[in-house]
Amino acid sequence: MNEVQAAQQQVVEEFGFFDNWMDRYQYLIDLGRKLPDLSAEEKNEKNRIAGCQSQVWFVAEFDGERLRFRAISDAAIVSGLIALLLRIYSDKPAADILATPADFVTALELEQHLSPTRSNGLASMLAAIRAFAAKASPSP
Questions:
Q1: What domain range is 63 assigned to?
Q2: What is the CATH number of the domain that holds 82?
Q3: Residue 114 class from Cβ within 10 Å (0-12 exposed, 13-18 middle, 19+ buried)?
């Protein structure tokens, strides 16, 4: 099991403690509130994720081994989704990110419980993470 798979499994197990989706939504909102803000300079068009109805800014850094992500949104539940994505993908090797499908989306039934616009935004954020990982990954 690679690091991304392990992080996904941990998140799925954590969400299993909640009996209903209202509790899961509240947990997502609480996670999002804990995200550190980005600087005004980082909240620019280059770092904005297209395809999200709310404003989402995503910053990726690569140290030669691991990708680190920082992100924030102006919407509470979206910030919670970002917090989940950061827990799963930040500080992980690009190869693990690219080799691992986002199985947690199905396991948590996110697409059934998010509005279509939030589901599209989640897909856009996942695509951005994979694109950053592909750029950081050595060419074959």
A1: 3-134
A2: 3.90.1010.10
A3: buried
Contact 86, 71 (CB under 8 A): yes
Res. 140: pLDDT tops 60: no
Q: Is 139 inside any structural domain?
A: no
- Predicted TM-score (pTM) of the model is 0.92
| pLDDT at 103 (0 to 100) | 95
Residue 140 in domain: no
How many domains is the chain built from?
A: 1
Catalytic annotation, pick one of 52, 86, 108, 133: 52
* 104 classed as catalytic: no
Cα distances from 49 to residues 55, 58, 71, in angstroms, run 8, 7, 10
